């Protein structure tokens, strides 16, 4: 009996991110055989982390900065280092500084030697002119957004194909259209109900991370109707009670899905700048709750 193969959305998401990083890397430098040999010579055919001599068949190359949406590492000299399968597996998805500073690896990197190893690897990046400046917080945040957008695109197509099969008659076309429109309306109605429940709670307990983000936005919004994501993040950072990742808390307030925090924001672009505004479908709910909050 034939089995249905599982192709999770994350496969497409990770492929898109890797493709972006790979294409950026190709435009910034080459990784041919001679480059790899130069890297091996630089480290004297030893593991870049432990300094242990490596046989030719033992060499595997590791990325100091992982090539994924979280870290945004590039496939370039200055980021590739020789190591062994054992060390490569132990490092796993960490960047090199996290790996070396991890206390569980004190057997590999004694406390008094950790900084020395880190400095040596940073010097290698510098010697091979690795373009660290490109991997900014905005860069990795954008990769995370693209990763999320892919899921939304796939889900949109799934709905499109489910509800827009070739109709046999004009009535079927109208029915499919109505089903899709009804589905979208239900999503919005459910989201409005979620926001109506949650926003008053956020404004009641202003120590919540979502509360801090929302109040920071409304403070900026009162001064100017145009607020950038960067401005909002800076305003949030002023609150000592905010101790979590900004993007990790902000993003679920901009999207619709089962476990989101409630869509109150909409992100858009003005030129190259990412801007944020209240989502039109929940704007009145948020502003009404904020008005009550200020009157208390």
TrEMBL record:
Q: What is this protein called?
A: HNH endonuclease
Q: Which keywords does this Swiss-Prot/TrEMBL entry list?
A: Endonuclease, Hydrolase, Nuclease
Instruction: Name the InterPro entries on file.
Output: HNH_nuc
User: Molecular function terms in GO for this entry?
Assistant: endonuclease activity
Q: What species does this protein belong to? A: Capnocytophaga sputigena
